[in-house]
Amino acid sequence: MFASISSATLFGVEGRQVSVEVHVSPGLPGFAVVGLPDEACREARDRVRAALLSSSLVWPQKRITVNLAPVGIRKGGSVLDLAIAIGLLVATDEVPQAAVEGRSFLGELGLDGSVRRVTGCFALVDALPTSEVIVSPACFWEATALGRHCVRVGESLRELADCLRGLLPWPSPPKGPPACSAIAAPDLADVRGQPLARLATEIAAAGGHHILFTGPPGAGKTMLARRLPGLLPVLSRDDALEVLRIQSAAGLPTAASLLNVPPPFRAPHHGASAVSLIGGGTASMRPGELSCAHRGVLFLDELGEFAPHVLDALRQPLEEGVVRVARARATVTFPARFLLVAATNPCPCGWATAGPGPTGVLGQIDGELPQCRCSPSLRDRYRRRLSGPLLDRFDLRVDVTRPDVNELVEGDAAEGSWAVAERVAMARNLALNRGVACNAGLEGPALSEFASLDCAARQLVTWHLRRGSLTARGLSRIRRVARTIADLWGEPIDHALGEAAVGLAIELRRPSSFEEEL
Amino acid sequence: MKGGSDPGPGASTRAARSSELIDDTASNPVSDVALALTTLPSMGLAYLIQICREWPVTELVRALREGSPIPHISEDKAAILPAVTVERIERWRRELDTVDILALKRRYARADVTVLVRGASNYPERLRGDEFTSPVLFARGDLALLERPGVAIVGTRSATRVGLAVARRFGEELAYRGYAIVSGLALGIDGAAHEGALEKRSERSSGPIGVVASGLDVCYPRRHEKLWAQVTGRGLMLSTSPLGMAPGAHLFPKRNRVIAGLGRLTLVVESHRRGGSLHTARAARELGRRVLACPGALDNPAGEGTNALLADGEATLCRDINDVLLALGQTPEPKSAADPRPEPSVDDALVLVALGWDPCTLDSACTRSRQPMSRVVLSLARLESVGWVQRIDGRWQRIARLL
């Protein structure tokens, strides 16, 4: 008359184990679900009844009570459907109690008795203490990615019931993982010319420094930004675990194993709301775009077109690497440590700092480059949309100009992504030896130990500090970037940073059209 | 917008004048009535200038106060001033009766604003001869600056970086030599000239004079709020409008005339083909002041106006500070024959020469010099710190010589 089935629900990006207790007793027929179910979870009553009946299984004309323990936390979604149905079968002695021992059940039921996929399977499986998990075939690869559980699949409730009774052998899992939906990142070799912007992209990838591309339309800002993920190394096992958990909770396609997870790349449209970036929601706490880009790249194209309050919501996650979403019912912490890549026009019309292009003054007389038509106040307003504290997070601010015509037409093919990625991987390894994932994470004593300046570099920095073109805050950021540059150039790791590396770091942080001071 | 928070050198005289204004309640001296006149609803700056061309302010005030007919309103004068009818004068008289002059005076004293009326001793000496300039001015700040020789620096609001740098440099250099920089606090060249004048390299440096068209309590443009406060605190603010007056297009030409009148010469740094700074230049010529203009590059639209001034012979060429000093009757400072900048090293010189004379990005600098980026960055950083190149709008530019 009683059964307890192990299952799990999703809370943020974490799974939580839930025991589904089913009690069947004589009395007025009825079906109650208690233990803080939300609306989708309460609807399980109707789905489970229909599924049982259409699977030609017995629906007891008795009083049924389902309790979801622990009672204190809210359970959302349809993931408990399967566990409730199996619990009923055990409680009515259709399935022996011994068959469900040491097994957990995750799945949504269709009215026809089919078992459907659930979101967050990876995180849910992670929370289960049992050694065996039963899921729908669609979830098989997500459930096995963790590699800790024996995963069994079942197409329908009827099939599962028969397997549990021992009437049928367990069905074989689906063949081969689904084709990886991640299309290979485009190659950096497609970018002609633009040596400085290419170098900045490489530095951003190697050091994890946030980067802002500014320039007129058609200069290649977006093109460069889209090639950045291809320069990053595949994720380590720990990082992959975090990434898969988030992707699974967000309902995104996930990799089939922890071994070869590419860093995620997210590019939300500039109409995005603050909640869609940060995460949250009323019923279920869903991770936002920031968390989906965890350990990868968040690309904000047309940065100036995002609503200012949306952009300012980025500031705290950029600083702390996590998003804390507080709601009346609960507070969830989502990881959000990403590389921010942004692209923007310098003004609404896009041509504010176009000036004479690489072809020289003559190009302008020919009318080759349009001039900015925006009034100073309009330009000012556009720039003010990006708050100072947000701009300050960008260590690399690159003005992208239209490439030289000659290079477009007859330039040699540039270095491809794989060659750059090799250098990036090497630089990242050096950072790992310093105890951080990448140089952007160097703080305090580590910064002074690994990024000291040599005499000439100190002179250069002093000159900029005196002149007011560099602030104390900018200095430590420049030292991190300079460390990355020196690593990429293959300079000895125990030497102080030289004038050239520091000079380039300053050049890359200098007032592009968006800010007056470093 | 409280200039009073920072007592400048003129604070004591200002305080004395304020108390004098308040105590003098019985006899409504000329300046008080003139102040009241400017605030009448049916009185505009244009009227005021027009009638004061015919009758000195003192005479007009007396006539209005005593109720006697406006003196000498003969046929031919009525023809000169068609708008100033007897009815209108009656209306002013009626409106004047309703003004609480004492309260008005208190308000201006509280705002630390002094009223300068033509004919009174504190009205700027240099404007006295100009009948087309505003007969009533409002001042806040160090009035002693009016005694200093002035140089007007004007130009376009949408200036280039080079133009702004030039204006700032001239402002600083001339203020350092004791000239009061007169300008309009507008965006662009005006603001840059004031910023330069506020650098204050030595005790001898003169404070700037800002001349605005809105009331002294109406900061315009709003972006220059800080600059406005700085000029009030360390220099002098003049306005052609009473407190509370919003800026209007019709007010600016009168403001420009005051700027031209206060300067011993007017320097136009950058101007588009049409622009307010050309009006200032014309006013300066009408007043017999010299006009200097900086030449603009052929492709620079902000140089068209100044080039036109030079081509038409309305302005003399300004190439450096010595041209200005010469026009002011000063002996030009001898240029040291040797470039004060240290000779660049062979490597740096290679980059410098390859850079050429038009601004270029770091990428083009590498292409032009055929050097790797690490080398070019290094050279440019060194060259910048000793003044051979500068970075403007993300582009590197060779500096021919220090201004």
Question: What does this 3D model show about the protein?
Answer:
The complex is a heterodimer of chains A (518) and B (403). Among the domains of chain A are: 2-165, Ribosomal Protein S5, domain 2; 188-194 and 210-235 and 263-414, Rossmann fold (3-Layer(aba) Sandwich), CATH 3.40.50. Chain A contains 22 helices and 18 strands. Chain A has helices at 39-42, 44-54, 81-91, 121-126, 140-144, 157-165, 195-207, 221-227, 237-249, 274-278, 289-292, 308-312, 315-320, 361-365, 376-384, 388-392, 405-410, 417-433, 444-450, 455-467, 472-488, 499-509; strands spanning 2-11, 14-25, 30-34, 63-69, 103-105, 108-109, 115-116, 132-135, 150-153, 211-214, 265-266, 279-280, 286-287, 297-300, 322-326, 331-335, 339-344, 396-399. In chain A, the strands form six sheets. A five-stranded parallel sheet of chain A has the order 11-14-17-10-18. A four-stranded mixed sheet of chain A has the order 1-2-4-3. In chain A, helix 20 packs parallel to helix 22. Chain A is elongated. Chain B is an alpha/beta fold and 403 residues long. Chain B has three domains: 10-110, no CATH class; 143-327, Rossmann fold (3-Layer(aba) Sandwich); 346-398, Winged helix-like DNA-binding domain superfamily/Winged helix DNA-binding domain (Arc Repressor Mutant, subunit A, Orthogonal Bundle), CATH 1.10.10.10. Chain B has 17 helices and eleven strands. The interface between A and B is medium-sized, with 34 and 28 residues.
